[in-house]
Amino acid sequence: MKIELRSDREFDVIAIGRACIDLNAVEYNRPMEQTHTFSKYVGGSPANIVIGGAKLGLRTGFIGKISDDQHGRFIEQYMRSVGVDTSNMVVDREGHKTGLAFTEIKSPTECSILMYRDNAADLFLHPSEVLEDYIRRSKILLVSGTALAQSPSREAVLKAIRLAKQGDVKVVFELDYRPYTWTSTDETSVYYSLVAEQSDIVIGTRDEFDVMENSFGGRNETTIETLFKHAPELVVIKHGLDGSYAYTRSGEVFRGEAYQAKVLKTFGAGDSYAAAFLYALIRNLDIATALKYASASAAIVVSRHSSSDAMPKIEEIERLLELHVSH
Amino acid sequence: MKIELRSDREFDVIAIGRACIDLNAVEYNRPMEQTHTFSKYVGGSPANIVIGGAKLGLRTGFIGKISDDQHGRFIEQYMRSVGVDTSNMVVDREGHKTGLAFTEIKSPTECSILMYRDNAADLFLHPSEVLEDYIRRSKILLVSGTALAQSPSREAVLKAIRLAKQGDVKVVFELDYRPYTWTSTDETSVYYSLVAEQSDIVIGTRDEFDVMENSFGGRNETTIETLFKHAPELVVIKHGLDGSYAYTRSGEVFRGEAYQAKVLKTFGAGDSYAAAFLYALIRNLDIATALKYASASAAIVVSRHSSSDAMPKIEEIERLLELHVSH
Amino acid sequence: MKIELRSDREFDVIAIGRACIDLNAVEYNRPMEQTHTFSKYVGGSPANIVIGGAKLGLRTGFIGKISDDQHGRFIEQYMRSVGVDTSNMVVDREGHKTGLAFTEIKSPTECSILMYRDNAADLFLHPSEVLEDYIRRSKILLVSGTALAQSPSREAVLKAIRLAKQGDVKVVFELDYRPYTWTSTDETSVYYSLVAEQSDIVIGTRDEFDVMENSFGGRNETTIETLFKHAPELVVIKHGLDGSYAYTRSGEVFRGEAYQAKVLKTFGAGDSYAAAFLYALIRNLDIATALKYASASAAIVVSRHSSSDAMPKIEEIERLLELHVSH
Amino acid sequence: MKIELRSDREFDVIAIGRACIDLNAVEYNRPMEQTHTFSKYVGGSPANIVIGGAKLGLRTGFIGKISDDQHGRFIEQYMRSVGVDTSNMVVDREGHKTGLAFTEIKSPTECSILMYRDNAADLFLHPSEVLEDYIRRSKILLVSGTALAQSPSREAVLKAIRLAKQGDVKVVFELDYRPYTWTSTDETSVYYSLVAEQSDIVIGTRDEFDVMENSFGGRNETTIETLFKHAPELVVIKHGLDGSYAYTRSGEVFRGEAYQAKVLKTFGAGDSYAAAFLYALIRNLDIATALKYASASAAIVVSRHSSSDAMPKIEEIERLLELHVSH
């Protein structure tokens, strides 16, 4: 099965949701209390995905709200500098701040994030700021789950999905579940189900699909049985080091291997995975190949310091894949 | 066309949403400043509809949250006394108050409402308080638009709709648009569209459908063209004194006449309309007859002082219809 | 000891704080669930006091914020009609509603109130709406404790007290403690202490002074010892049916008897007490007499249906006192 | 005139208010958009003052609320490491975050701060968390104006002042006005006046005193005339490069010179000024000398990168003063 994308569109992917600031520990392998210096990067799952896509050569755009300050301007400037179209990024005029993520790297496997998300500007994107014409210029609308966590961003995203479906734009839903912005998993489950059932492609970890189903220890077969009764054509479920699975509505199942990497931290793995997976679909590669690109991209990013700036070029992905083939 | 309802269900209609207190001016035909006495009634669109249904002989139930005080207890006691099942009404434990509506009747055509809706208990119904088993015991789930205005009531309703669809329960959406509980018509439009497209029957005034479409002066033809691409089988659009129209997915159009009445006030017309319309559908009467019952019921309620207690019995509706036939 | 008041002022008393609506059970001696009709009156402690004062012949004014609706207009019209100067009552422009109090009279001794105080308009009085020139036109500024419960009303009152002290206006603090508008007794205690220590006269029940002291079972002697280290000259502590005590800075103690009355309900006793007490002080009567007037006024109001409209005329107070003398 | 301090107290100064994180631009003399690395320091005016005091050899303590995360723990550890008693710092259990200040240094004279103060943990200090016994162990209670900006921190500070006055602890009020945490200057003016009039020593810039007076271009003579009618014994008004003035209740006026410094940034000048000024008073030096120490301390801090870690030792202050004498 192949995902049919419109060929007459200017953009490959337009993402909607948050663009934030990551403050990454410069001195790491220690508790954050002992870190005295932080490096600033653009962060936030949908921003990282279009940045990653742009670095791979895709034509990408972004819909989101940024703060009216130095952090907001840095985000817009950085994204524009790597080739993301920022014409539909809106500057907040009500004093909301950019979301922050201080990353703590105690060891490659003990990473945590200290989030500043109270009244983050991205959550104030208003449905009136989502423009039909812009969405119709893209092959794909990428929706990030976190953007559903609060109003009015939630309604902005629901409107964007509606416009995408009316405009023959494929909707890709990256579950991107971040507990701190939701009031309950009941609430998350309501919106995740609603959006997943309207999307063409759904990507997430097994844990995230469990949140969508408001359950624990869910089985992939049950998940896809429910989703394939509705709009989805392709569902990708990630199982960490055990690899990932892509299921198609027509019944195919593909398994993607996780590649070994010298892990510096775990952040950014999902975003780089999604960027490379979409790249492959857009380049009309098959699903098995897309899974390989995705895993390779994730393996590269976890070995590096940031999540956005670290996004690989296509040559880097292909070089890593060649190494693995030659094994 | 007929709406196929499950015959194996204990309840005819279960409504979800608000149950409030109406405080109706005892001395009327004057500004409220000059009213010194108010009569207390149960109010709120979905509560009125199931009360009206119960008076007509339907088996009805209600899902909603009521305040932990004298007003909340009055609501539950009254609804139970007229035969509504209140087993799934939940008592709020966080100090929220019952919504109030003071009605002002300056003249039969100049009526207004002074609302107390800040933190009204009904808007705090939580998705975890909506039980799948209960919904599956009904033929119809009646959803009121106002219940979508705020979280967590919004999510409770979205969950109820999902459960209804999974459980082969018909979803009837009464738009019931009340501007004061919404932050913007953009927001209303997002949720009204989402819910209308998932419902089997949609009922509202032309103005309310305009809100759903986030436009002015919309045409019925456009409305039904959009809705019939999705779940709806039947759409009822009311045009006040010009009567109402019922459109079926199979292409039929029915026009219902508005009956003359000695109008005391305009409140409650829509709720009594919906109650009698659903009664007729459940009794397996045809759509043309359902429109007549609905209009007759509305004509009776506007001639009386309350919106809930004034709901007619079936004999009263039939008597009024006989008078009109004999003309 | 006598309280020295400026003789060159246009107003005897200007009160600051809330003016609300009481909805009193027409059918009483039963739970409110069984009451179907409510009578509307102006309510709220400081409003009642200046209404009571005006009925006794005092020249009174009011500083407060009222809703931009029928309830707000009713309040202003009623207060003006009984002679209260309403020129400094401000209409809220942000959609806040008038506070409501539904009264339940199960029996003369079992009375309770169902309050609607969420975002009540009176709590949104802003310091910029308190005018120095107006306060300086009065002999007395009457401050109600409830107005300290939330910002910005809290700051409006603190500013008014400051202006009063600068303008040689006596500050009378009526503790008027209503738990539902405060977040904690710690918070209440901070502001009650602050304001009491700056006031010239402090009036409250023993329980209210306990709240001020953030303690239980406090002794009057301790209370006055603390207060007389600061501004107060006169402290009145009410002990319900056991009567009330007035303490002066110069060491005098007066005991006022509570008069027997055919009690209909307990509401309004404190407000009518304060109105008549201030009347006596302003008419230059001695403190012992002021306590008698206060008790008589309270006895009259608890025998009647409302708290504001029921405020007695001076002849009624004097007639009741004559009856008691003749015993 | 000398300020009489209790000699029988364990602490010289206990401060109450905020302790935050400063994130200072590592690459400076450029807009923050072009800064990629930030150094982390403890910040917040009252925290800086007790840190500065501790470095000068004073025995200091701190009352404040810190976040339950890496930033909160860093603050407590750092303050403890320099000798501040942190036994009365309270850990927030409701998920509030540490306030942040990103500093931008475009040039030595163009400095600005990007603040994160929404729901900052320090503003949630509750009056019940302020302990009388602790305050009574100090000679001085230092109050920072920003702690008055929101409830419940506001009430915690008002309670602390009350306890200090009852316990013969001198109250020093550092105005520390930060507009972003206040809703209006009317509100600020109410609390600044209230607290200044209850304090023994008041320190601020001329602009800050204008905020207290809710006016522009105020004169020092008017300010002190008003304040000396109340509790203050000493008022220090800073005029930037034009130096500062200390006024005593007994009528003395002292002028302190501002010392030239190689300015890196302007942050931290006020805090280092206050720390050294209090040091001198506590060491029983005269007011003229205290002004010199204060100016010298400020001159040292503005030449360095941080506001807390940069606080000078007493030898550094004295060396700078010697240089100035020898000129």
UniProtKB/TrEMBL annotation, chains A, B, C, D:
EC numbers on record: 2.7.1.92
GO BP: any one term: inositol catabolic process
Gene3D superfamilies registered for this protein in UniProt: 3.40.1190.20, putative 5-dehydro-2- deoxygluconokinase
PROSITE patterns referenced in this protein's UniProt entry, alphabetically: PFKB_KINASES_2
Presence of the UniProt keyword Iron in the record: no
Recorded GO MF terms: 5-dehydro-2-deoxygluconokinase activity; ATP binding
Listed pathway(s): Polyol metabolism; myo-inositol degradation into acetyl-CoA; acetyl-CoA from myo-inositol: step 5/7
Keywords of the record: ATP-binding, Kinase, Nucleotide-binding, Transferase
Superkingdom of source: Bacteria
Catalyzed reactions: 5-dehydro-2-deoxy-D-gluconate + ATP = 6-phospho-5-dehydro-2-deoxy-D-gluconate + ADP + H(+)
Functional description taken from the UniProt entry: Catalyzes the phosphorylation of 5-dehydro-2-deoxy-D-gluconate (2-deoxy-5-keto-D-gluconate or DKG) to 6-phospho-5-dehydro-2-deoxy-D-gluconate (DKGP).
HAMAP family cross-referenced by the UniProt entry: IolC
UniProt name for this protein: 5-dehydro-2-deoxygluconokinase
Source species of the chain: Alicyclobacillus acidoterrestris (strain ATCC 49025 / DSM 3922 / CIP 106132 / NCIMB 13137 / GD3B)
Classification of source organism: Bacteria, Bacillati, Bacillota, Bacilli, Bacillales
